[in-house]
Amino acid sequence: MNPTRLEASHAAIALFILGIFWSVPAASASPPSAEEMWKIIQQQQKTIEELKARLEATDGKVTASQQRIESTEKQAQAAEKKAEEATAAADEAGASSSTAASWVDRTHLGGYGELHYNNLENETAGTELDRVDFHRFVLYVGHEFTDWLRFNSELELEHTLAGDDEPGEVELEQAYIEMDVYQNQSLRAGIQVLPVGIINETHEPPTFYGVERNLVETNIIPTTWWEAALGAHGEVLPSMVPGLSYHVMLHSGLQVPVTGANAFRIRNGRQKVAEASADEPAFTGQIRYAGIPGVELAVSGQYQSDVTSDSLASGGIAATLFSGHAIVNKGPFGLRALYARWDLDDGLAADGPATGPSPGRDVQVGWYVEPSYRFALPGAVPGDLGLFARYSETDNNAGDASTTDTGIDRWDVGFNWWPHQNVVFKFDYQNEENGSDNDGFNLGLGYQF
Question: 253 to each of 37, 159, 229, 256, 405, how far by Cα in Å?
Fold first, then answer.
């Protein structure tokens, strides 16, 4: 019992003792007998015992109440601790969720693909081609680490199946880091497509006419052409000449074969950054002007000191590429035109193709012009329809001094139907002359996202 309750008990006893004296008759009265006094004492003792019992019960209730209070305080403390832990967990979960959301917001997925059907006949060779092929399936992944540092990549599966004795390949076409170093100026490092021609950089099926890529940007500019590169790009005097930009790269080079039917053929020299020889790096630069709405003009150049990458013991074969193109879109009318030319050193051409680009491959050249007309379809048919025609000349043996024409002259006419801007159905008819005679039609389906 605490001191406060003890004092209250003593005070109660003292009051009852006083009560005894007050209950005794005054001195003027006759004193009680011994028997009466004994009864009074027993009565008072009984009262005292009842008071003690009540005090003890009260003390027990107070103690129980204190215990309940202490228990409640402990429960409150425990609840407060749990609340704090829950708050901390919620904050941590929120932070984790915020981090995840931020990662998702900064990561971008995309891709494109195209399915082709070719029905061609070569009367000269007496051969026919009747084939369907899912030519390309490409996935794009990009991520922004910060507002000034990002990653871009493209992974491609060609012809559906890849592996031993299979027609396709799995290829990593792009995988580079891009860093903004100044206003409108950036650096890139990694696997990149080269800034040459039109389709090499922008080759998603909905962006060009025709089922197959044109011959000039297949055999002269070996689209798709990528290398391991360190490069810079940006605008040139944007305040004075808006729309004028540059792109320069130092990169791995070609390694053309030096024997056989494909000796010094440019397309067969792509190494695709697969354990590629780095003995002879190359340099590519481009100047592009897009300051007028709907107009793009560009020139590109490349130099490699040895296009064989030291495959010839007798000496290197330097190679230079020049290309220029124009894209004009005014209302429904469109026009594309491109010229590309390779010049290879003669080397020791007189000794045969094993030591130089002979016969004729010291010059490889091609060009095309492609007008088009695109318009929205009327009525219930969705999307746009585009009509086009293309004339091209391509020659991988243009340096041949003989009178034999080794080039390919080709007409392509057809249409693209875009039910959606990112989905296209294609049809074209082709007619070839001179070096090849593949005539027939092609059907295609393409998409991008």
Answer: 131, 26, 10, 10, 30
Tens digits of residue pLDDT in 153-162 = 999 999 999 9
Q: What is the pTM of this model?
A: 0.77
Three-state DSSP class for 436? Answer: coil
DSSP 361: T
- Which residues contact residue 132 at a Cβ distance below 8 angstroms, ignoring those fewer than 6 apart? 115, 116, 117, 118
**C-beta separation of 411 from 440 below 8 A:** no
pLDDT of residue 168: 95
- CATH classification of 183-448 is 2.40.160.10, yes or no? yes
Cα distance between residue 313 and residue 268, in whole Å: 20
Token pair for 28: 């003027």
At position 326, the amino acid (one-letter code) is: A
Tokens of residue 72, six digits: 């409640």
pLDDT at residue number 61: 58
Show me where the domains of the chain are located: 3-96, 183-448
Name the nearest CA neighbour of 56 among 5, 3, 13. 5
pLDDT of residue 77: 76
How far is the first Cα of the chain from the last one, in angstroms, to the nearest whole number?
A: 83
CB 233 within 8 A of CB 411: no
Q: Which residues of the chain have pLDDT under 50?
A: 1, 3-6, 8-18, 20-29, 348-354
Pairing assessment for the beta strands 438-448 and 408-420 based on DSSP bridges:
unpaired
Q: If we measure between CA atoms, which residue out of 259, 345, 257, 251 comes closest to residue 302?
A: 251
Number of residues written out for the chain: 449
- The beta-strand segments (E) located in 331-421 are 333-344, 363-376, 384-395, 408-420
Which of 175, 177, 168, 192 has the alpha carbon at shortest distance from 145? 177
What is the reported pLDDT for 5? 47
Q: On the CB side of 423, how many CA atoms lie within 13 Å of its CA? A: 4
DSSP state of 278: -
pLDDT digits (tens, 9 = 90+) for 304-339: 999 999 988 878 899 999 999 999 999 999 999 999
CA 228 – CA 192 distance, rounded (Å): 6
Distance CA 83, CA 96 (A): 19
Task: Give the phi and the psi of residue 94 in degrees, each rounded to 5.
Answer: -65, -40
Give the model confidence (pLDDT) of 42-85 as tens digits.
777 777 777 667 766 666 655 655 666 566 667 767 767 776 77
Contacts of 166 (CB under 8 A, 6+ apart): 159
DSSP per residue over 77-145, as a string?
HHHHHHHHHHHHHHHHHHHHHHHHHHHHHHEEEEEEEEEEEEEEEETTTTEEEEEEEEEEEEEEEEEES
